[in-house]
Design goal:
The protein has 104 residues and is an alpha+beta fold. Helices cover 38% and strands 18% of the residues. It has a four-stranded antiparallel sheet with strand order 1-2-4-3, with helices on one face. Helix 2 runs antiparallel to helix 3 (81-94). The protein is globular. InterPro entries: PCD_sf, Pterin_deHydtase.
Length: 104
């Protein structure tokens, strides 16, 4: 999978307003705040199954009701279309939960 060039990254991010690009433009990240651990883990379970199906996996951490996700393509050394598509899927899953915000 080809690394996206900077203009493609910018264009894709325009459609993913809740995701932040890192300084090196090699990864995007988003923080989620759920009602509690059960909701956070249910969200993670759905994302995990989709990630495994795509063979494209998030870097993430969870503390109680917080989930922090970073997406990058290790094999390409940066962002690819796989990250953009996984981010879109993750946003769709998150929409089914009552998010308390994405502040940390
Ligand atoms: C061997 C296996 O196919 C690769 O390591 C896959 C697995 N999941 C992956 N996930 C992500 N985010 N980036 C990768 O480059 C990647 N590579």
């Amino acid at each position: 999978m080809e690394k996206l060039d900077p203009s493609r990254v910018q264009a894709s991010l325009a459609t993913l307003p809740d995701w932040t690009l890192d300084a090196a433009c090699n990864a995007i990240h988003r923080k989620f705040l759920f009602d509690g651990f059960v909701e956070a883990f249910a969200f993670m379970t759905q994302v995990a199954l989709a990630a495994e199906k795509r063979n494209h996996h998030p870097e993430w951490s969870n503390v109680y009701n917080r989930v922090h996700i970073t997406l990058t393509t290790h094999d390409a050394g940066g962002l690819t279309q796989l990250d953009i598509e996984l981010a879109r899927y993750i946003d769709a899953v998150a929409q089914r939960f009552a998010l308390r915000g994405d502040e940390s």
